[in-house]
Amino acid sequence: MRNLALFMHISLDGFTARADGAMNWIKISNEMFEYASARTQAADTALYGRKTFEMMDAYWPTAADKPGASKHDVEHSTWYKKTLKYVVSETAARQNTDKLKFISGDVKAQVSDLKKQDGGEIIMFGSPGLARYLMIEGLIDEFWLFVNPIVLGAGIPLFANVEIKLKLEKSTTFADVVIGLHYIKV
């Protein structure tokens, strides 16, 4: 059985974005990119909600080609292009390809089937609405949370109407005071 690992930036009070969707409060650093890159290399499949996929797909396919592209941009762009991507969407107007598949209808059954296939880890970036649904269905195995030193007070929550028992595997404090927490579901 393949693991489904969620990567998400959150505020101290558990929000993934402001109410308007803004994420300009998120702190990122090269140190965090190195940390996350080690995890993405274990994954050969990515799972996205439609909005997150559209945001990612607008940037990553050509990020390595831009003048002055960072080491992270080159590495992640390369990973993104070779990785099989699944997008959960009822409204996406694109066709399946060899590297892009769309999931609609019975999402629980299709994600469960995906986890049973041979392959590396399945990684999910962002997509808080999809993440909440998959948490409720018990399909997320690992949580890689980047806790940013801010209290938003309101916004788009990660953990809403769900109870999950987790075990802390590792915590990492980055120089920019973001704390990386790796939990596994128990």
SSE layout and pairing:
Elements: E1 4-11, E2 15-17, H1 30-40, E3 43-49, H2 50-59, H3 71-82, E4 84-88, E5 100-103, H4 107-116, E6 121-125, H5 128-136, E7 142-148, E8 156-157, E9 166-173, E10 179-185
Parallel strand pairs: 1-6, 1-7, 3-4, 3-6, 4-5
Antiparallel strand pairs: 2-8, 7-10, 9-10
Helix pairs in contact: 1-3
Question: In percent terms, what proportion of residues is strand?
Answer: 25-35%
Task: Please provide the count of β strands.
Answer: 10
Output the CATH topology: Dihydrofolate Reductase, subunit A
- What is the CATH superfamily label? Dihydrofolate Reductase, subunit A
Number of helices: 5
Which sequence of SSEs, written as H and E, runs from N to C?
A: EEHEHHEEHEHEEEE
* Low-pLDDT stretches: none
Q: Please give the share of residues in helix.
A: 25-40%
Strand order of the largest sheet: 5-4-3-6-1-7-10-9
Domain Bacterial bifunctional deaminase-reductase C-terminal: 4-177
Pfam family, one: RibD_C
Protein name: Dihydrofolate reductase family protein
Q: Would you give an account of this structure?
A:
This protein has 186 residues and is α/β, with parallel strands linked by helices. The protein has one domain: 3-Layer(aba) Sandwich (Dihydrofolate Reductase, subunit A), CATH 3.40.430. It has 5 helices and 10 strands; from the N terminus they run ββαβααββαβαββββ. It has helices at 30-40, 50-59, 71-82, 107-116, 128-136, and strands at residues 4-11, 15-17, 43-49, 84-88, 100-103, 121-125, 142-148, 156-157, 166-173, 179-185. It has an 8-stranded mixed beta sheet with strand order 5-4-3-6-1-7-10-9, sandwiched between helices. A two-stranded antiparallel ribbon has the order 2-8. Strand 9 (166-173) and strand 10 (179-185) form a beta hairpin. It is globular, with a radius of gyration of 16 Å. The two termini are 16 Å apart. The mean pLDDT is 93.
